[in-house]
Design goal:
Chain lengths: ~290, ~280
């Protein structure tokens, strides 16, 4: 794995969370690059291979002092010889990604010209928020949205009030809307669902959001018909797939198949179950 | 060797002679594919073992394998939090004949690994062919994401006390600071990784460097770790994957032979042969 940062990136010394994010993104990418060695019995060879791992994952060196399986940089052999663990780190923002992203989308939708609604800070912020929300490195979001790394870091570092042209922002805003759509389907489970299958991450990197939604369909998730119609996707009914999906991901269903919001389950409280007749229970909805 | 099965990216074809003193320590072939679940049931692992045994590949030892992810959550002003998540469960099959053979079956990958490597056509290809056929039948993967072949070589010389002692054996351009007029006597170890592009979705990672080898009384050994991969998504067809693995093998052999000097290569080849050798022999 190579941790040398691209020209123009922050130096590693004096790192911040941003540096960690970049480096851990490279760690994850590098781990995927390697043909993974599962076990090495020869201690001298294991140590030699481990030197590469430890040196190239600095400054996460303290974590790398765990016994490395060798091979994949961040794969560890813990107590069991047949167990391996990838190390992936996430940097999260305190501010709600959902709120910020939604706000930016609303601003973009309401603007009358690109200079009014597409500021540098908007684009940089949205990229970061999408990355945090999906649990993927910023680089993946840049790939998905077609924004070059140099452009992105130019925006991020610029001290003047830049107003990048819409063309420079690639498919970012389409990606925002797609993420919003997926988030409405998966809620807090979105990043878990995405990261559970490398193929989905690859679809994201390609910016193929339609295929990503198709993958959600394949997994059995219910997508509102209007969304499917807009994307020209076919959704054959498969109750068994739906059950399997729900068993794996506790996704709350918020819309019916026509896209109408369902009555919130939270608005029905146990205390509101009253006896109407001797053997009949009636649910009374709260007013809020 | 046809163009179709030669090394990737027009690399020079490798000599096919088997090395008399092979530095190869470890050979790994990994096929990653789209996982349809997060578990390989014991029944499937047992069937795989039985079918491999029927083809003459005995892996008597069966162990549970698992893959997980350690997540570190870092927020400004707060202590980092870590958590461990189980991602997948599978099985490891170990040969009990002392050959060091090992197979790992995971929902999204199958790995064949050996520490006793004679030649591709003997040590890897037949076992790979059998394994992929079994996987194709039992796990029924659909799309292959990546196929990788990794050879870890360790050149040893009990008389080598400094990295510079490998001058004339490892290609000079790779030795770097080890041959520097001032640094040479002080360098104890070095690690370099080359990332090579060998096609749109093909490439290689070459990790190499001298290191103090505790296994040889503190002598300086030289590690050459070649990882060649093909990341083009394809349908899982065992026969096709074997052919692609052969291309990777020829590529790895080519990279190996250009890592060391021709003179040194000749010293580790059998005296009765005149051609150069390869640790990752490419005879089909």
């Amino acid at each position: 794995m190579t941790l040398a940062l691209a020209p123009g990136d922050k130096p590693r010394t004096g790192g911040s969370l941003g540096d960690y994010e970049q480096m851990t993104a490279q760690v994850a990418t590098s781990a995927d690059q390697h043909t993974r060695v599962r076990e090495v019995d020869n201690p001298a060879l294991r140590e030699a291979l481990g030197q590469f791992d430890r040196l190239q994952t600095d400054p996460l060196g303290a974590l790398c002092s765990l016994r490395s399986v060798t091979g994949p940089t961040m794969t560890y052999l813990l107590d069991q010889r047949t167990a391996s663990f990838e190390l992936v780190s996430f940097c999260t923002e305190e501010q709600s990604a959902i709120a910020l992203t939604t706000a930016v989308v609303a601003r973009a939708a309401g603007g009358s010209s690109e200079t009014e609604h597409t500021g540098r800070h908007d684009a940089v912020t949205v990229v970061k928020e999408i990355a945090a929300r999906l649990g993927v490195p910023v680089r993946d979001v840049l790939l998905a949205s077609g924004i070059s790394r140099s452009t992105y870091y130019y925006w991020a570092k610029a001290t003047t009030a830049l107003r990048p042209r819409l063309a420079s922002q690639g498919k970012l805003w389409a990606l925002v809307q797609a993420v919003e759509g997926l988030a409405s389907l998966f809620g807090d489970q979105l990043h878990g669902w995405l990261l559970a299958d490398p193929a989905r991450v690859e679809l994201l990197r390609r910016g193929d959001v339609d295929a990503l939604l198709s993958a959600a369909l394949d997994a059995g998730v219910a997508i509102p018909s209007e969304t499917l119609d807009r994307l020209n996707l076919q959704s054959p009914s498969d109750p068994e797939a739906l059950k399997r999906f729900r068993a794996r991901y506790p996704v709350p269903f918020t819309h019916d198949e026509d896209g109408n919001r369902l009555t919130a389950v939270e608005s029905i409280a146990t205390a509101d179950v009253v006896e109407a007749e001797e053997d009949e229970l009636v649910l009374i909805e709260l007013d809020d | 060797m046809s163009d179709e099965t030669g090394p990737l990216a027009g690399l020079p074809p490798a000599d096919r002679t088997v090395l008399a003193r092979s530095p190869l320590e470890l050979a790994v072939l990994e096929v990653r594919f789209v996982a349809d679940s997060d578990d390989v049931p014991a029944e499937l692992a047992l069937r795989a073992r039985e079918q491999l045994a029927a083809q003459g590949y005995s892996y008597g030892d069966l162990k549970r394998a698992q893959e997980g992810r350690v997540e570190i959550d870092m927020q400004p002003g707060a202590e980092p939090k870590s958590s461990v998540h189980q991602l997948a469960h599978g099985w490891q099959l170990h040969a009990v004949d002392g050959s060091g053979g090992q197979i790992t079956l995971l929902p999204g990958a199958v790995v064949l690994q050996t520490v006793r490597y004679e030649r591709w056509s003997v040590s890897l290809r037949p076992a790979l062919e059998a394994l992929l056929n079994v996987v194709e039948e039992i796990l029924m993967p659909s799309v292959v994401n990546r196929i990788g072949l990794r050879y870890v070589n360790r050149f040893v010389d009990p008389d080598a006390r400094t990295p510079a002692d490998w001058s004339g054996r490892i290609h000079e351009s790779l030795l770097g600071a080890a041959t520097h007029p001032v640094f040479d006597a002080h360098v104890r170890g070095a690690q370099q990784q080359l990332e090579l592009s060998l096609g749109d979705a093909q490439g290689a990672l070459l990790r190499h460097g001298p290191f103090v080898d505790a296994g040889f009384g503190g002598a300086v050994s030289y590690l050459v770790d070649i990882d060649v991969f093909d990341g083009e998504p394809v349908r899982f067809v065992a026969a096709d994957l074997v052919r692609r693995a052969e291309v990777l093998n020829r590529t790895a052999a080519s990279l190996f032979q250009v890592t060391v000097t021709p003179e040194y290569l000749r010293t580790v080849q059998p005296t009765q042969h005149t051609a150069t050798d390869s640790a990752e022999e490419v005879e089909a």
